[in-house]
Amino acid sequence: MTVPPAEFVLPTRFGRAAFGGCYAPETLMTPLLELEAAFRAAQADPDFGVALARELREFAGRATPLTPAPQLARATGLQALYLKREDLAHTGAHKINNALGQALLARRMGKTEIIAETGAGQHGVATAAACARLGLVCTVYMGATDMARQAPNVARMKLLGANVIPVTAGQGTLRAAVNEAMRAWAARCDRAHYILGSALGPHPFPTIVRSFQRVIGDEARRQVLAAHGTLPEAIVACAGGGSNALGLLVPFAEDNLRRMAVEAGGHGRELGEHAARLDGGRTGVLHGCKTLLLQDSHGYTAGTASISAGLDYPALGPELAALAVDGRVEVWRASDEEAFAAAQQLCALEGILPALESSHALAALPRLAREGVRVVLLGLSGRGDKDIASYERALKSGGAA
Amino acid sequence: MKPVLPFIMAGSPSLERLPALLAEAAALDLEAIEVGLPHSDPIADGPVLQAAAQRAIARGVTPVQVLECLARCPSSPSVILFSYFNPLLQLGTGRLIALLRPTPVRSLLIVDLPHGEEAEFERELRAAGYPLVPLLAPTTSLDRAMRLLQERPDPGPSVPFAQRFAYVVARLGVTGAAGAPDLGLVRDRLAALRKITGRPLTVGFGLADAVSLESVRAMGAVPVVGSAVVAALYEGKSLRAALHAE
Ligand SMILES: Cc1ncc(COP(=O)(O)O)c(C=O)c1O
Predict the structure, then answer these.
(1) Which pLDDT does position A5 carry in this prediction?
(2) What's CA A261's distance to the chain center, in Å?
(3) Taking the model in full, what pTM does it have?
(4) Do A299 and B88 lie within an 8 Å CB cutoff?
(5) Residue A397 in this model has a pLDDT that exceeds 90
(6) Is B85 on the interface with A (CB under 8 A)?
(7) Which chain A residues are within 8 Å of B41, Cβ to Cβ?
(8) How far is B246 from chain A (nearest CA, A)?
(9) pLDDT at A250
């Protein structure tokens, strides 16, 4: 290994709020400095770009299609709606873009093991698949609550050869899984790379994840111009940590259109009943970055609630939070119930079963139409097979599960 | 008693017991003691300290309560306040410094605050007499260690130990890892660090048994005992017993 650089070179902070940073224990500082250096070297190396593009094409099935959704457009009051189909990427969500990018990076760094956390299980499945393909040992930390509600993905990870470790601490959700994955990385950082699954955590993770996800928006921009002739009036994606939202929105950052991210409104407005960080959060530090954080008055992280395991993280990724504070991205919330209703509508009208996460973006469509928006590009971040049990329960009870 | 730096978690076994524990530390003639503020997401801590923090939070212990309790312990040894950054950020430097004033806290060890991330916060605390303790991990190169030691400099022998020492992390991973760390590696590491600094060094992360403590002392460093002390106190033992002082 070459001598690690003494300082980060890439910007570590975002926006006027200066969110982001690297609030990491000293044990992880050198691994993070090495990671940034490896990432920069990979970015500058045409061979890396070629290898990643090839994996994305031959293994992940990119480019994903852009599907016009005329029935849903009509039903929600829009003139035209285009769905960017990340649900059709291999393993069923956008997560594979980042998992492949970071797994290739890890191999370049000479790492033999991969550690990952997962909420909905999509990042875990994508990482397990990438590791199987590249010959890396894979350990995934997953909250026990999430393992129960996303059981199909647990089975998939195991089939793909990953060691899935249940985390029972806290609410047994993504936040607890990240805690445990960071601890595991500190213990094995000499041989393991940590593939963080969303645009959060200490620098350089938010930047790396966003950069591997912007393929979504780069493709969508070409596709929507080809299909529609002009840019849409609004672009919308759901936001957990913010990786699919940033990936879709960033290539449209300088365009004159509305950029939207939709958070989990859960089942109420009180702290603990949702994961709506823009309204409910205050500036805080969690898992290595400063951002909008749901917390109590003592600085303890608050509990969250959402029907969607991928959106119930208490912090908004720092770059997305900074864009929101700077007024460059609008952040809305959708409730559990609205997400369910929107998913059923997409199934019935367009023959597509969305992930519960993506359904939160769909739930924003009627409101956008009411505000006069006519043409929308929507990031359909994943497919809904993993959520079958929740959907069935909702159908039986006639509303939220 | 022989040099040792115990770590206790405020609020475990209970906040009511904190003054008595600090009095016992003073009676044992300890120079300093680390007191942890409980946090909801202790990413650098192993199971014992996680559970202790969890119990404290579940019982309603808050950072302000801990600091107010410390203010009622004037005869305590120097306290090194151990914390994650977010609870301190929420207090703000003004309130934090005012709360620290009447306490025996002499320095802060903020696990997730590298030098430079919050330059103003760190500068204000230092100016008020609360320097941050430098941490040196197994992944910290000697070049980097040299820089970290300069960024958080040793004011020299005129100030208490709590404001001078650097904390050497004995192993990769989190606090309370099972089994003693590789003492051969620790010895080599200390020898290398001795060439770049003369300030007092403590060694922690996974030290528990009397033999390891003695070995670290023989290397000229002060052993830190955290998880083992917290677990023993939770079982109802005295601080003296937890530190193998009997
Ligand atoms: C299908 C899907 N969409 C969205 C998300 C939310 O993550 P992010 O905000 O990083 O895109 C997840 C996370 O698990 C997911 O599985």
Answers:
(1) 83
(2) 11
(3) 0.97
(4) yes
(5) no
(6) yes
(7) 175, 179, 286-287, 301
(8) 33
(9) 98
Domain layout of chain A by residue ranges:
25-56+94-210, 62-92+214-397
Residue A215 has pLDDT above 80, yes or no: yes
Mean residue pLDDT across chain A = 96
ipTM above 0.85, yes or no: yes
Is any Cβ of chain A less than 8 angstroms from the Cβ of B172? yes
Tens-place pLDDT, residues B156-197: 999 999 999 999 999 999 888 778 889 999 999 999 999 999
Answer for the pair B225, B243: CB distance below 8 angstroms, yes or no. yes
**Domain spans of chain B?**
5-242
**A117 is known as an active-site residue:** yes
B25: which 2 tokens?
A: 């530390």
Nearest residue of A to residue B64, measured between CA atoms: A298
Q: Considering only the top CATH level, what class is A62-92+214-397?
A: alpha beta
Q: Read off the pLDDT of residues A81-136 as tens digits, 9 standing for 90 and up.
A: 999 999 999 999 999 999 999 999 999 999 999 999 999 999 999 999 999 999 99
pLDDT at A162: 98
* A190: nearest CB among B144, B148, B172: B172
Separation of alpha carbons B25 and B32, rounded Å:
8
For B5-242, CATH number? Answer: 3.20.20.70
Distance between Cα B69 and ligand 1 center (Å): 43
How wide is the angle at C-alpha B2 spanned by C-alphas B139 and B74, nearest 5°? 90
A7: phi then psi, degrees, rounded to nearest 5: -135, 160
Fold agreement between A25-56+94-210 and A62-92+214-397:
yes
Q: What is the pLDDT of residue B51?
A: 96
Please check the confidence at residue A401 and state whether its pLDDT lies above 70.
Answer: no
* Chain A residue closest in CA terms to B148: A26
Rounded distance from Cα A224 to ligand 1 centre (Å) = 22
pLDDT tens for each residue of A310-356: 999 999 999 999 999 999 999 999 999 999 999 999 999 999 999 99
Residue A265 phi, psi (nearest 5): -85, -10
Determine the Cα–Cα distance for residues A313 and A71; give it in Å rounded to an integer: 33
Pick A25-56+94-210's CATH classification: 3.20.20.10, 3.40.50.2300, 3.40.50.1100, 3.90.226.10: 3.40.50.1100
For helices A95-108 and A26-44, the axis angle rounded to 10 degrees is 100
Alpha-carbon span A85 to A76, nearest angstrom: 19
Angstrom distance (rounded) from CA A257 to CA A218: 16
Residues with CB under 6 A from ligand 1: A 93, 119-120, 122-123, 198, 238-245, 310-311, 355, 357-358, 381-382
